[in-house]
């Protein structure tokens, strides 16, 4: 399984908006959260609400919302879209949850450096592959691809719902997906060819800020080559990477994004 084989199964165009959750209480304390559940801070709620207003101003009206099962992601999705979990457009994808951070969970990185110096030293070279109990690259590449499969299934469901008279030039359906900084690395890496068989290295990392928006625009390509052999492919473009609501939209009582 690869990103390429998954995306050739697209039935129609779609824009995926992958969004990291807003600031959580764990983020504010500077600890490694992993799978631990924590609500948003007031700042995180403000980030999410403003991101929702910004996307609405851009004309983004989600046809579907998919989220990690963790509270900080589900709360962010609700504040961005205004949709409750009971809304039929909303659903949880378990594979969108954060990576398991093993024995570093609940510690700040500085605390981990002091209390687990050997593990921390290896962590600086090999990232989470070096941390006992943490989720490694092979598992993360596999899980990211399963998440992409679920997102394509969501997009194809929207294509099946469209009426025959819908104009091909009409708006492209939007799917909002709220997840976590660690998994976002692998959603991007798999889009550039990482697989469980060839997971690539952790580095380089891609910055994923709280409520950073990553937009991937996709469309199927059905054509023939110069020998009239059928081609089944896709066009894809990352058009936003870690983009956030502009500074002027932020409430002055909160620090602006940096």
TrEMBL record:
Enumerate the GO terms in the molecular function aspect.
phosphatase activity
Q: Which Pfam families match?
A: His_Phos_1
**Catalytic residues in the record:** 21, 98
Keyword Ubl conjugation among UniProt keywords: no
Q: Give the top-rank taxon of the lineage listed in the UniProt record for this protein.
A: Bacteria
User: Gene3D superfamilies, from UniProt?
Assistant: Phosphoglycerate mutase-like (3.40.50.1240)
UniProt key word Isomerase: yes
Binding positions for substrate? 20-27, 72
Q: Can you supply one Gene Ontology CC term for this chain's record?
A: cytoplasm
Q: Which UniProt keywords apply?
A: Glycolysis, Isomerase
Q: Which PANTHER family match?
A: BROAD-SPECIFICITY PHOSPHATASE YOR283W-RELATED (PTHR48100), HISTIDINE PHOSPHATASE FAMILY PROTEIN-RELATED (PTHR48100:SF1)
The protein's name? Phosphoglycerate mutase
